[in-house]
Design brief:
The complex is a heterodimer of chains A (about 130) and B (about 250). By secondary structure, chain A is an alpha+beta fold. Chain A has helices at about 1-20, 40-50, 90-95, 100-105, and strands at about 25-35, 60-65, 70, 80, 115-120, 125-130. Chain A is elongated. Chain B has one domain: Rossmann fold. Classes of the chains: A alpha+beta (about 130), B alpha/beta (about 250).
Amino acid sequence: MHEWALAESILVSVQQIAEQEHLQSVSEITIRVGALQQIEPSILQFALKQMSEGLLKGVKFRILKAKSTLKCRVCGATWQYSSKKLGKADAEAIHFVPEAAHTYIKCPKCGSPDFEIASGRGVWLEDIKGVK
Amino acid sequence: MIDPRTSIIGERLAKTRRIVAISSGKGGVGKSMVASALALSLARVGFRVGLFDADFTGPSTHIILGIPKDVQPKEDKGLVPAEVEGITYMSLVYFVGDKPAPLRGVDVSNALIELLAITQWGKLDFLIIDMPPGIGDAVLDLVRLAKKIEFLIITTPSLLAFEVVKKQVALLCELKMPIIGIVENMKRDNSNIIEKETEKLGLRYLGAAAFDQKVEAAIGNPTKLLDTAIGEATEKLEKGLGYKKGNSDAL
């Protein structure tokens, strides 16, 4: 599962931050997942729990969703990404590498593939609660 | 907000002994041919070799190697690259197919980080990276993210190509990146001007591949590719890389 690779990167990243910030314990990690990558929160949650160890064992993971906004660089139109308008294979390609969106999605107003992924691309760490 | 993906890249590449970027400031000099032939040559003498096509807007190693469309990476806690001709292989073409991928700099960086973060290369003696032309995002990102990276530079006999290569060498020296040497591709006569110019830069001249009309006919056929001047040059390069077999199990 692709979510496992991303979960691993989250745990390594949190571990590094905890060391830098001299955290003695971590109680809660907030993760935001953008709509474009279509990460399944339940799989990510399961992977995070399965792989947590040491300082992160038993930590609470909050996984929040974010809409993905795309903005055309040619005509300036903005729109929300939805995988429903795509075929299964195309949506899956974007799931693995969100930049594949430039191959499968066009601006709904002018038809250009030259758009910016303005928000909600992938997975990012939003907050780490811990005690120093 | 923190992007967690870059944290895992070091670990993904930890079991790779050497990362060799086949690079050139100039396009059209034969980087993909050399990268493919070098990966094949190394695999055929028993090295564990990965090939990563980082030329996202113009990928071609899958065509050079004749990779069948049904050969795909497998999902297992990330993506496990498919094995082709003894080479573990990854490319953006698995996600965009034969369609264009019009990516700007930020998108190139993001796609590169994503693939480096999710690809499970496993143990490798060599990870060969087919770089896009120039000294843009992919070069700067790989320098930042793949700490062990070394550069093998390709040029043609044209001084026009070499002038651009010189800029790349200057940048890599400024960034304190190791340069294995320079390979001259599509050599048409006995001129040694590129060899002399390479020496002036203080770099190793690792040999030449003569212009060979058989190369075009070898596209899609790895055995034929190794039977061309490029194949002969990359077989000799194995020594130029200065690496002896063995001990990768210790990783």
